[in-house]
Amino acid sequence: LVTTTRAVVDLDLPGARISRHLYGHFAEHLGRCIYGGFWVGEDSPIPNIRGIRTDVVEALRALKIPNLRWPGGCFADEYHWRDGVGPREERPTMVNTHWGNVVEDNSFGTHEFLDLCELLGADPYISGNVGSGSVREMREWVDYLTGVGESPMVNLRRANGREEPWRVPFWGIGNESWGCGGNMRAEAYADLARQYATYCRDHGDNKLYRIATGANSDDYAWTDTLMRTIGGCGSGPLQGLSLHYYTIAGTWEDKGHATDFDLDEYYSTLTKAGKIDELLRRHSTLMDVHDPYGKVGLVLDEWGTWWNVAEGTNPGFLYQQNTIRDALVASLHFDTFHRHAARLTMANIAQTVNVLQAMILTDPDTNALVRTPTYHVFEMNTGHHDADSLAVHLLDAPSRDGLGLISASASTKDDTALISLSNLDAEEPQTVILNLRGREVSGHTARILSAKTPQAHNTPEAPQAVAPEAFTDLEAHPAGLKLVLPPHSYVTVSLSLS
Ligand code: AHR
Q1: Which of 19, 41, 60, 263 is least enclosed by beta carbons within 10 angstroms?
Q2: Does residue 374 share a domain with residue 303?
Q3: What is the whole-number distance in angstroms between the Cα of residue 73 and the centre of ligand 1?
């Protein structure tokens, strides 16, 4: 059924600032994310900058990546940073027990990661090892990275070729400490988080934003305990609390196929993705109770789709394709993030290259680089970075089994506004009247991301099968603008305001 939705936007009523860090990323030592994805080494025939793939850096720079989380994930709690500094040929190896039991030769370590961040223009977000590390090991890593003056760690950094400290704003105190990061109880971890965070010092001008391991999905008891223990009102040694939520349409045993899915699976995926709204609302409410002034930020540092691995690939490498359905999961998440921008300070999609809901896939045989549909949603949304959110009131929007079929959000910056609209209806176009109030609109442009089917995706043979185009199915309307959104499409409308 084709319906008409009214979307009312008050252009003169800015709400919370949408931190650019809601568009953050995550790169783990997992499968082909670091090795083959980012890092090929200086001697590789693949064009590289000091060992880092040039094409990957160039593609990602268009996304204005605000921060990059590393080295894990589960890997973080087995990672010992001293193994990854100094001459590469002398670095010890280890076995990556979480991800395929492959040998990790530590050729991509601290200096290489910070170099990557500088090339991307991204802030580093480092996850320290609580599960199998020590307070001393974590403290020394912080000292090594950010220390100034004379100290054993600063001198070691200098001996390894880096004179100036790096700026490292974000620091994770472990990862999934309720699971792969140590199987701890909330009470036990909360005390450890306070202890570890205490010794992660601020050096010189570097101010750490220390992030405690947060809940898995709807484990509200974890958030309650953590917030009670880490100190509400920002008085404790921690500034952020994380949350992880993956969109899994099937079960953990059979998560579903990345590209071969029917309409029921399409809708159940988007319904699962839509659960992020309830999760952010309920975790935020608990945080409001313990921290009414909003000093501790909520950090969704792992999110995205998780499908069965692609046929013929290593099950421990989590390699999957990425379709229009994934793009709509992303757009739905971003609309939700914008609505929760007051408490949500950061979010990191899992993961940037070749793992889970990636932006970029690289072909191991031809080395070809493919931008995924999800990549394009990130690029189309760069105008929301550090803009002020605008509420979008939807009237008469269609729904299917409780899933709203129109998702929308908006923001404003200087004399512009950006409106994001998703038509989640797999089969029907939907008409939307944008009711634009409060400021004069002097011009508009629009772009669309869609394809013939929700299963459409990009490959080395057809890298542009899904790519943004100019959107022309819109016209002036007495209330503002009238748009007809094709089925399974994502549209952004940029407004000039006077
Ligand atoms: O992103 C893949 C894994 O998912 C991460 O290593 C872990 O934190 C989560 O369970």
Answers
A1: 263
A2: yes
A3: 5
The parent domain of residue 373 ranges over 20-385
Query: Taking the C-alpha atoms of 72, 76, 78 and 81 in order, what is their torsion angle to the nearest 10 degrees?
Result: 120
Amino acid identity of residue 465, one-letter, is A
Separation between Cα atoms, residue 251 and residue 254, nearest integer Å: 5
Tokens of 324: 């229009």
Domain assignment present for 15: no
Atom of ligand 1 nearest to the CA of 302: 1
Q: How many structural domains comprise the chain?
A: 2
Percent of the chain at pLDDT exceeding 70: 98
Q: Note whether 402 and 441 are same-domain residues.
A: yes
CA atoms within 13 A on the CB side of 219: 19
CA 45 to centroid of ligand 1, rounded, Å: 31
- Counting every residue written for the chain, the total comes to 498
Residues within a 6 A CB radius of ligand 1: 28, 72-74, 175-176, 302, 350-351, 356
| Rounded distance between C-alpha atoms, residue 185 and residue 287, angstroms | 19
pLDDT band at 213 (very low <50, low <70, confident <90, very high): very high
**Residues 224, 336 within the same domain:** yes
